[in-house]
Amino acid sequence: MRTRSWQSCFLVATLSLTSSLASATVYTYAADLGPEAQGATGSGIVKLKFDDATNDLSIYAGFAGLSGVTTVAHIHCCTSTAGSGTIGVAVTPGTLPGFPVGVSAESYSALIDLDLASSFTSGFINNFGGGTVAGARTALFAGLDAGTAYFNIHTNAFPGGEIRAFPERVPEPASLLLGAIGIGALVLTQRGRRRL
């Protein structure tokens, strides 16, 4: 009976831990940046993190070897085919805030509050978001999950875009840990039941 009590406590503690860790709401998307246009030479990486508790989007990009110097950078959404095509700008009119202009290699990071209408283009809010900021936010992350949203950097050599990437969702280490803990708890519970 004492073993069963220990196993029950372990299972309850494990389920409690996994449910509290499961409430972590950060989604990560990442990809390598590569040439968007014939003859472009740039490369790099992009990582997006979205916290759905705060509705903040953090962006990190590192790039080098561009054919020209930077002019603007955007997040576009939502193409008709995953991983290809072009579409209008979704996030921030003009360019991403603080994006470095006039360089061929640099790193960039920003935090964008996706609760603000100014964080989206009006065209994206109206055409994809149903006229609301909440709808635009939902559409953007549906596009990221579907592979129809992309990040790109424009240069003076390639005004239409020199390098880009369609970021894909990256499993969070906490999610993998949760799965392992849950499986371990079930195995231990089942082992104990066989002995009784």
Could you characterize the architecture of this molecule?
This protein has one domain (23-195). Strands 1, 2, 3, 4, 5, 6, 7, 8 and 9 form a 9-stranded antiparallel beta sheet that branches. β7 (149-155) and β8 form a beta hairpin. α1 (2-22) runs antiparallel to α4. The N and C termini lie close together (8 Å). 33% of the residues lie in helices and 31% in strands. It is α+β, with helices and mostly antiparallel strands.
Structural class: alpha+beta
Q: How many distinct helices?
A: 4
Estimate percent helicity. Answer: 25-40%
Please state the CA-atom Rg, rounded to the nearest Å.
Answer: 22 Å
Mean pLDDT value? 85
Which ranges are low-confidence, i.e. pLDDT below 50, for 5 or more consecutive residues?
A: 13-21
**Main sheet attributes: strand count, strand direction, barrel closure:** 9 strands, antiparallel
The count of domains is: 1
Portion of residues in beta strands equals 25-35%
